[in-house]
Write a structure and sequence with these properties.
mainly alpha
Length: 214
């Protein structure tokens, strides 16, 4: 009985380790195309590139418009270089008689325009970032030096007033409100906070690349 129990456990483990049953490639591809169609009609393009990639890997028969819809999906998720590649494939293989010929041309043009626009914006942002980064150490040092000066002035005034009040206590007729420096209404921390907010530079932030450039 013990041997039989062990044998059953081994068989059960073997069965559990087998991959889940999968559909034939053509049926799985058709099912994925159906899911893509439903998601596209709802405007949910985010997860569709992976489904197109899976269909491509299945090596199954696909509709003539497969690369058009793949390119359109990639355009919708801002993956412009890949969108251009699939739209090129569609137009090259199907020619001017393609069902979605005009739509493909429009998407191809839009993809190129958007890619150029985003690259120019990113390049401009990077130039500004590099300029600010080169200036930042000097500006920060000037700010820190000025803060040291503010600290010295603050404590100088405070110490001067404190010393004056102490002298007044020992001097008959001293009018400390008139003869001593004015009281400071702000603390040192408040002085520095105001100065830093108005005068000190923020550290430059690296611009974010467009998704298709990663």
């Amino acid at each position: 009985m013990k041997v039989r129990a062990i044998f059953v456990m081994v068989i059960a483990f073997f069965v559990a380790s087998l991959p889940a049953h999968s559909l034939p490639p053509q049926i799985e591809a058709d099912m994925l195309m159906k899911e893509i169609g439903e998601a596209s009609r709802s405007g949910n393009f985010k997860d569709l590139p992976e489904k197109f990639q899976r269909i491509s890997e299945l090596k199954a028969q696909v509709p003539d418009s497969f690369h058009f819809h793949w390119g359109k999906t990639l355009y919708e998720v801002n993956q412009y270089p890949s969108a251009i590649a699939h739209l090129d494939t569609y137009l090259t293989s199907k020619g001017t008689k393609a069902k979605f010929y005009e739509d493909a041309l429009t998407l191809l043009s839009k993809s190129r325009i958007e890619m150029k626009k985003q690259k120019e914006e990113y390049d401009t942002a990077m130039r500004e970032y590099e300029q600010k980064s080169s200036e930042y150490p000097t500006l920060l040092k000037a700010c820190n030096d000025e803060e040291s000066s503010i600290k010295n002035e603050f404590w100088g005034r405070l110490n001067s007033r404190t010393a004056c009040i102490e002298d007044c206590r020992r001097t008959p007729g001293c009018r400390k409100q008139l003869d001593c420096p004015d009281a400071l209404n702000l603390t040192e921390i408040q002085y520095l906070a105001i100065h830093r907010k108005l005068s000190c530079p923020s550290e430059p932030v690296l611009p974010k690349k467009p998704a298709w450039m990663n």
